[in-house]
Amino acid sequence: MACAELWLCLHFFGLPLTVFEESDPARPTVVVQQRVVLYANRDNLEPGLALSTASSLHPDLQVLERAPEREAQALQALAYLAYSFTPAVSIAADNSLLLEIGGCRRLYRGINPLLEQLRAVLQERGHEAWFGLASTPRAAWLLARHPHA
Q: Which distant-in-sequence residues (6+ apart) come within 8 Å of 27 by Cβ?
């Protein structure tokens, strides 16, 4: 009996910041593109905020210019890591990976053990991801992008 396709999307929402080794996690930090905040390590600094506003909220703000090439390299390394869980891995838009895991369920004795092990491996390497699980790649990607919807 063939297993139905099951897609897992991993959205690495913090990747724009985690690619910078020089960032100080104790300091308020933002990653900006064209003077607009893309990612911040503080709750009161939202994506879309103007850099001038963010600077007024935190005078000691560390500002990092987005590094898409570093993000792409990190995402490629994460894709290689994901191959240890499934042979069907692809890079998706917006710092995300798509993994087809339907055929891997028996190997991990179910979806939850597979997800727990994947989350632990990512955490060990300093990455956090939002997960989206669905029967199509697009649906999984959408769910991972909006985990609180």
A: 60, 61, 62
